[in-house]
Amino acid sequence: MNKIRKGDDVIVIAGRDKGKRGTVLRRVDGDHLLVEGVNRVKKHMRPNPAKGVTGGIVDKDMPIHVSNVALYNPQTKKADRVGIKVVEDGRKVRVFKSNDEMVDA
């Protein structure tokens, strides 16, 4: 079970975008995430008339390592670590470590 999933609200805890908040758009692989508005770079694109792509400089979100982000806890309004707990009916759920609240409540 992944501790951070697509659609989660996260805060960057390390790197040049430290403190920024965004939503996880997708998991690139096991260790990298694409977060909206984070790790944005300017990419020089070559025009491709066959695909209808115009050339120029575009802003693009690049993947960020999962260790550099933490889940945002709306109760404490801070970054929080995530644990996994088994509830009474046998399901595994994600919980915040600080206050033991369920992430997907």
What does this structure look like?
- The protein is mainly β.
- It has a domain of 67 residues: SH3 type barrels (Roll), CATH 2.30.30.30.
- The chain contains no helices and ten strands.
- The chain has a six-stranded antiparallel β-sheet, with no helix packed on it. It has a two-stranded antiparallel ribbon with strand order 4-5. A two-stranded antiparallel ribbon has the order 9-10.
- The two termini are 17 Å apart.
- The model has no long low-confidence stretch (mean pLDDT 93).
Offer a concise description of the structure.
This protein is mainly beta.
> What is the alpha-carbon Rg in Å?
17 Å
Helix content: under 10%
How would the global form be characterised?
A: elongated
Main sheet summary: 6 strands, antiparallel
* Poorly predicted runs of 5 or more residues: none
The CATH topology of the domain at 9-75 corresponds to: SH3 type barrels
How many H/I helical runs? Answer: 0
Tell me the number of strands: 10
Please give the order of strands in the largest beta sheet: 6-3-2-1-7-8
Q: Which class do the helix and strand fractions yield?
A: mainly beta
Could you give the order of the helices and strands?
Answer: EEEEEEEEEE
Look at the structure and give the CATH class of the domain at 9-75: Mainly Beta
Range of strand content: 35-45%
Span between N and C termini?
17 Å
Q: Which architecture of the domain at 9-75 would the CATH scheme give at its second level?
A: Roll
Mean pLDDT: 93
